[in-house]
Amino acid sequence: MPDPCQPVGPARPARGRAKLSDVAREAGVSPAVVSRLLRGDEKLRIREETRQRVLAVAAELRYTPNEVARALRRSEVGILGMAVHDTSNPVYSEILAGAQAEASAAGYALLLADADELARTGRTFERLVRGNRIDGLMLQRGPGGSDAAVAQIASTRLPLLLVNDRTRGEVGSVGLDDEAATYLATRHLAELGHTAIAHLHLGTPKARSAARTRGWRRALAEAGLPEGPQVRGGHTTGDGERAMRGLEPGSATGAVVSNVLAAVGAMSGARAQGLRVPDDLSIVAVHDVFFAPHLTPPLTVVRMPLRELGRRSVAALLRQLGGDRPPHEVVSEPEPELVVRASTAPPPRRPGRA
Amino acid sequence: MPDPCQPVGPARPARGRAKLSDVAREAGVSPAVVSRLLRGDEKLRIREETRQRVLAVAAELRYTPNEVARALRRSEVGILGMAVHDTSNPVYSEILAGAQAEASAAGYALLLADADELARTGRTFERLVRGNRIDGLMLQRGPGGSDAAVAQIASTRLPLLLVNDRTRGEVGSVGLDDEAATYLATRHLAELGHTAIAHLHLGTPKARSAARTRGWRRALAEAGLPEGPQVRGGHTTGDGERAMRGLEPGSATGAVVSNVLAAVGAMSGARAQGLRVPDDLSIVAVHDVFFAPHLTPPLTVVRMPLRELGRRSVAALLRQLGGDRPPHEVVSEPEPELVVRASTAPPPRRPGRA
DNA sequence: GCAGATCGGTAAAACGATTTACCGATGCCG
DNA sequence: CGGCATCGGTAAATCGTTTTACCGATCTGC
Question: Quick check: do A1-65 and A77-176+307-331 share a fold?
């Protein structure tokens, strides 16, 4: 029942919520007990009766700890940063969705940042990276993502993880099997009978781009095919469209495009040049996106576990916060999978090169 | 066990960054001066010489304030929450991108949350909404977003803003001119000569869905056309595909689809029924997305200022934090704009209804 | 020479939780 | 009855800033 002798202060302050000390006062114990009880301190010895009373008061007052105060005391905020180059790129937003889910499940929140802005090392950098606003940072380097920026961040000792990337050394990373992706894509074209297979490559970031090129080369070598033309495909539909113009007409009957957005552009570009897909040119892209089946023709892709990549990145970063060494993982479960749709077909009878 | 080998107070602690008191000590002033100087306190009178010295020390120590401590003291964290139903929906991620940009420009960070999870009023709700983790919350209600959840959040007195929605009363909102969108879309079809114009509507949320229906009705009325069939289109490609099955064959030669993803699905669905787009059926959607020009046929849409919506939402929420009354805005600049591509054409000679 | 102003700061109390060290009663054992 | 565990907690020091109130000198005017 309500305390008869309550001369001072309202039980629950008019403005603002109940705080720890309110619960303590109301339950007639010290704040320490409330904190230790609510946090499940093993070393706390407490009478069952007291425990119930404290819990009841906390519930009645709808006590919720002030996360900011906790964070200050514990020097741990329960927030992970996620720096993305382009939020509206469906590949990135898929990773983001996975990360959000995993973080949330682990009791963490996700703070969104712009990777480019971060790299400029200005106010955003100061506040986010050096201001104790986050416990760790996941960074998805975009096309222009420099090593210098990464070093800059790493030097602050903020736990850092490169997502969808591959590193060695002190900065950890969680990536995808990029080589397998282009390998599968290229092999698919080879199996269809293509002998002139181009690669529209990423350009940047270097590590990922190199792996994709390797996969393409390996598949060509295994099939005993010559290396087809290689042009820069980039990351956007515009890049892909431009890339098609750079591809010498007739130099290839199939193209492996290292990025799905570029592939979308490449299809438009091909059409603009009077090439029919897949009749004159087969196109296969890396990464599946929800609208790929609705393109015309539906786009053949290698599906990569993007959502899983997001999840695993968070898990890895969390382990790193726990003291583990920076991870160098490749998410290979589920495996990259070829999804055959209608943008690939056997090469035309009259081969491209005549 | 205390460390006997550790002499007192290193100038800059080995672990962790320089703090305010370090700067103060090093510069030979009190912490108050440093804080007030760095925060630009007008009332602070200080000798030029001292000012320079403090600034120099702060720079030398690379002092960055601990945002958590600031937040605690000021009861203001500098973080806005953004709760989204589906991160990987390109419409939402476009809004998100705008919000991120504006927040960042205003010196705020954006915390991402899952709207559905939030609505479940569990741990996430407690920590985010009642834990002082954010200064205000933007909520994009998804298909299942209930009023109860909104009321729940509003009752906590956390500044709340509904994004891409329309409200009256105590909960503010920033929305789009949904009626204009479907009006323009419908008028376009009418001008092409269509007389049987269907509406694949949203279903939920109610307010937005109703406005879209109104726009369609108004355009039909103005053109002196009868009301065509209306079926639930939903928000996903799958929904749109299903919706096409629900549309009686021949009952319409044109369809206004209230959501671009549903429109993508509708095109596939139409094809599955042997309908050619636009020869047999014209389709126009609300919202432009980057891949719309690359669909086949390229999708005619009404472009809405999604990114601007994100920006304006942040600006509105910030004003609300500043004490303004909850806004009820409609972002109408730039205006909804019809982007004619190839999914719309005059109706077939032999009218659908024949 | 003395009452104010003005200058150039300082002291100290918040903000709300966590955590370490310790403490006064009981109970138990010999 | 003395010693010492064990029980059931408590006190108080942080965490790093911000901000209000105030203070001792030095001028200034008369």
Answer: no
